[in-house]
Amino acid sequence: MSLPAADLPFAQGRLLQHFELPGVWLERGLIDASDTRLMDGALGLAGQRCMATLFFAAGTALDKTRRAAALDMARQVLDGHALRGTAGATCPNPQVLVVRVLSPLVEPAVDLLRQVWVNCTMETTKVGIREFRAGIAEFIASSSLVAVTRHGHTVGYFIPTHGQADADITALKKASKTLDQLLAAHDVDMETVVADFKAVRKQTTASKKLKVTAQ
């Protein structure tokens, strides 16, 4: 909702957000830049200027066990992330899982939701407690989610992270700040940059197609 690194705040205007799964789930929210209680209050956005949402929707109701497993996996990812204090996951009804996060910048929020998506959609390997203990090194090195069971019942999940990168997040924040400053200094609009990029990419694609045809 703003470019904080370039000192370009969301100071005026309104944002209407609308999510709908007809007949199942409807969410509408209005964010008004002049509503300081919402923008900066502890029960609102708490001064954060990025609100990101990820939701999973099923065509039919998910059984209670599957919903609980999905929530457990999502919350385990949230608990291990730097934004855990401003993120949450819930099931508003049996067909929808919602994960939402507040962040000062876009990049950390995208990183968190990407991790949730990967872990909630990746293949799950089920192993007993003894097998898990014996093969812990292999499970750490793998890319599969592990459901640890006891007497046939799942008692926990192991999510391999491969050392998520605080350094990468720091680098992204620095790059974002530099970009915002450059855009502000040269009075360049982000939409113009995106439009120019699309135009160049389109020209490059057309040129490649022409070369292939000529060959």
DSSP strand count: 8
Average of the residue pLDDT scores: 79
Count of helical regions: 7
Q: What radius of gyration results from the CA coordinates?
A: 22 Å
Global outline: globular
Please state the structural category: alpha+beta
**Biggest sheet record:** 3 strands, antiparallel
Secondary-structure element order, N to C: EEHEHEEHEHHEEHH
Low-confidence stretches: none
Helix share bin: 40-55%
Which strands sit side by side, in order, in the main sheet?
Answer: 3-5-4
The fraction of residues in strands falls at 25-35%
Ends apart, CA distance between termini: 48 Å
Which key terms come to mind for this protein?
215 residues, 7 helices, alpha+beta, three-stranded mixed beta sheet, 26% strand, three-stranded antiparallel beta sheet, 8 strands
